[in-house]
Write a structure and sequence with these properties.
This protein has about 350 residues and is of the alpha/beta class. It contains 14 helices and eleven strands. One of its GO terms (cellular component) is cell envelope.
Amino acid sequence: MKKSSLFASASVLGLGILLNVLGASQADAAANCIKGDRKAPYTLGWANIYSVPTWMKQTQGTIEAEVEQLKKEGLVDKLMVTDAQGDSNVQIQQIQSMIDANVDAIILIAGSSTAPARVLADACAKGIAIINFDSLVDTNDVTAKVNTDSHQWGEQATKFMIDALGGKGKILILNGPAGVSVSDDRRAGGNELLKANPGIEILAETNTAYNVAPAQEAVTSLLFAHPEIDGILSFGGALSAGAVLALDKQGREQVPITGENARQFLELWKEKGLKSWATMQPNWLGAFAAYTAVQALEGKDVPAFVKVPLPIIDNSNIDEYLARAKDFPADGYIFSPYDRALFDKLLAQK
């Protein structure tokens, strides 16, 4: 898929000389882990926790596209990619191999929030930029953490459902796998609103993998047990697609449903005229992480945490997303557009 690629005066030179005379550099004070002693073109490491899910493949695609652009600009010469296949211990070993190879930056989706702390501290001490996104680590030995707000996601989805039902109705709740932080945070985000609206009755809730087939099976079982359902509060796009298919197969009327930007769900939404709301974890967080790593290495001011606003999909803009569906895998995610201007705006947040 084609990605957007939008992208020293004498006084600056004088400032650089002055800083060197003083024994400092712009990079020293700009961002954590940065020592200012690494020079372009840089080698980036992408420490992937697993590569099989389509979401991860799309995310890696945005990283590779950004790296190609950075190569053209003379800022990057190599991307080192590892795949831990879901094993946090393997991921730690692979990060260590990146440190041993003296990469200049590590881009990380963490398999564990706590396990990589020691190896990341080692990388940070060696002046390696570390950009952690999506699944975050507890340690502050990173250059920046980048993420949307999963709690806010759950709150907004729950508000849509309450409003859609006029504050009264029987609902099912669909969660991702139990114990996964993103899933748990989304669910927790809706707690206060659900408590404050006793007219919303939770008939049942279930945890399944973020895949259509198990979600459809789980919802089918719930439909047999509950003949009257007014809404489905779903915290995942594949879960929502499975729910819509289950209702359809059972000859049940479609009900208001939340979800995310899975292409199949968005297409079913349009096809069946659903009353829906969705948001997303944008795949371009990967590209943004690569860009942020290079900006930090170049001595730019990079905040320790970058909060990425949740893009919202509703009936006012779903056609804009579906118009680009052909550019995305059938089992993939239609993520929001991005460019360097957006990246710079996010990095300018204080």
